[in-house]
Amino acid sequence: ICCKWNYRKVTIMSKETERLYDVIKKSLITEKSVAATENAQYTFEVKKDATKIEIAKAVELAFPGRKVTKVRTVYMPSHEKRMGYKFGRTDSSKKAIVTIEGEPLEFIGV
Questions:
Q1: Cα 96 from Cα 75, distance rounded (Å)
Q2: Under a CB-based contact definition with an 8 Å cutoff, are residues 46 and 24 in contact?
Q3: Contact by Cβ (8 Å): 57, 17
Q4: What is the pLDDT of residues 4-62, one digit of tens each?
Q5: Degrees (nearest 5) of the Cα angle 50, 17, 107?
Q6: How many angstroms separate the Cα of 106 from the Cα of each of 27, 40, 80?
Q7: All residues at 6 or more sequence positions from 69 whose CB lies less than 8 Å from its CB, including other chains
Q8: Which residues contact 49 (CB under 8 A, 6 or more apart)?
Q9: Sign of dihedral through CA atoms 26, 89, 31, 41?
Q10: How many CB atoms lie within 10 A of CB 95?
Q11: CB of 74 within 8 A of CB of 25?
Q12: What is the percent of the chain with per-residue pLDDT over 70, rounded to a whole number?
């Protein structure tokens, strides 16, 4: 159980709520994802073990007042990279394309 201070009032969060704050890693900003924002679709990088239900709850928790209507997930495998004569691999990840109903989300840098 974790405590969160809010205006001199302590709110105790459950372990599920605490996990939901860790589900979304960052928002992905690419040409394709910015074009999809016109259809209220937003792209996030999420934890690899996150389910669609957890992703929907995490987005609704992070952006109050919005309702998630659809979640699509894509697993992004790692790729080989080369830096000079050395070889390496990128990290594998998972991204979620979330359709939101309500006010559009505001991102810094878009």
A1: 9
A2: yes
A3: no
A4: 555 555 556 677 788 888 999 999 999 999 999 999 999 999 999 999 999 999 999 99
A5: 70
A6: 11, 11, 34
A7: 99, 100, 101
A8: none
A9: negative
A10: 16
A11: no
A12: 85
Amino acid at 52: K
Relative to beta strand 80-83, strand 93-101 is unpaired
Residue with tokens 């239900």: 53
Tell me which residue of 30, 2, 27 sits closest to 16, measured CA to CA: 2
Please state, in angstroms and rounded to a whole number, the distance separating the CA atoms of residues 59 and 69. Answer: 11
- To which H or E segment does residue 53 belong? helix 52-62
Token digits of residue 6: 């809010």
13: which residues sit within 8 A by CB, 6+ positions away? 1, 2, 3, 4
Nearest in space to 81 (alpha carbons), one of 90, 94, 72: 90
What's the CA gap between 8 and 89, in Å, rounded? Answer: 47
Q: Indicate whether 2 pLDDT > 60.
A: no
What are the φ and ψ backbone dihedral angles of 14, each rounded to 5 degrees?
A: -80, 170
